[in-house]
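User: What would this chain look like folded?
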Amino acid sequence: MTDWKIPLYAPSTGAAEAHAVAEVLRANWLSVGRVTQDFEERYAAALGVEDAVAVSSGTAALHLAVLALGIGPGDEVVLPSLSFVSAAAVIALCGATPVFAEVSGAHDLGVDPADVAARITARTRAVVAVHYGGHAADLPALTELARRHGLALIEDAAHAPATKTAYGVLGTVGDIGCYSFFATKNLAMGEGGAVVARDPAVRARIRALRSHALTVGAEQRHRGGPSAYDVDGFGLNYRPTEIACALGRVQLEALAERRVLRQEAVRAYRTLLSGLPGLEVPFADRPVEEGAHHLFPVVLPEGLDREGLQAGLRAAGVQSGVHYPPTHLFTAYRERFGTRPGSLPVTESVAARQLSLPLHAATTLQDVRHVAEAVSRTWPHQP
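Assistant: Here's the prediction, encoded as C-alpha cells.
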C-alpha cells in the first residue's frame, strides 16, 4: 500500500474494538447469535425504529430489499447512475431492469425527482433514493412521487448510518432502508450491513431470507432448540458474524462523536476551498450538522485536468478518489440494457469532474489545510 501522508480513508479502531472481538472469541460462537441480536436492537434504537436486520453487507441489504418486494422479470426500478454499482447489480440479478436517472447537478449529487418522474412507466415497481456521501436525497419529492404512482421507495443509506435530518432519520422515511458497514464506512464492521422496513411483514420476510428461509436458525438449534426445521422460501446466506456485530456495537457508540469530527473537517474544507474559482462543493448550502459526511466531494470546472490535479495531490502525499464512474456506462449495463454515452448528460458531466478529498474521523484541521494548500498549488484557474 502507498504510504499516504493524508489518506482518503483511515479506520477508526482501537482497544475497544479489540476487546469486543476477544469477548466473542471467548464465547465460542461466531455466526448470528446474541451479539448480533443486541447490535440489531441498539441500531434500531439509534434509528428510532422497531427492528433492524443485520446482514453481511450493504449489497446484501439491497438484494434482500428487492427480493422482499417481489421485484423480478418484467419490472423496472428507477435509480441514479451516479452511485456505486451494487443497487443496479441486485436489480439486474433479480431479472428486473435498472432505469437510470439524472442527478440534480454539481450542487446536489442526489437523484433529480423530476427526471425520476419522467422515467416512470407502467412497469416501474420501485425508486431507489441514494443518500450520496451521507447527504439526504430529496425525500419529500421522492416520497410523494412513489405514493402517487404506487411504488416502493428504497433508501440506499449506505453512506448515512443513524443520520438525523429535517426529513427524518435517513433510511427510515421510505419503505425499506439499506445500510452498509463496509471497512471504509462511518460505522465500520469490515463487512456488514443492515435493513429496516416500515411493514413488519416485509421486515420478517427479509429476516427469513437472510438465512435460507429456515424456520429454525443454527443458533437456536445450538442452544437446544428444535433440531428439525422447514424452508418456506428461497433464501440466501446473508448472515453477519458475531465478530462483525461486536465491532458494530463499539462503532455505534462512537458514531455521534466521530460525526462531529467529520463536521469540523467539512467546515474547514468549505472555508479554505471557497476562494478557488470554478470549484463547486456539492451540498455546501446545507447545514453541516445534517450530513453524515462519509465523503467530501468537489466538482471541478470544465476543462480542468482531473488526473493532473490528482498527480499534484499525490506528490503532496494526499490520496484522492472518484465517486463514482456512472453505472450506465459500464460494459455489462451497456450490453444487457442498451445504455449509452450521452443518455444522462448531467450525470456524465458531473462524474467526469468529480473528485473526493480525504475525510474521516481522524482528519485534523492541519490535514485539511495541507490538502487545501495542495489543491491550490495545482489549481490552474487562479485570478
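The chain has a mean pLDDT of 95. If you want, I can go into more detail on any region.
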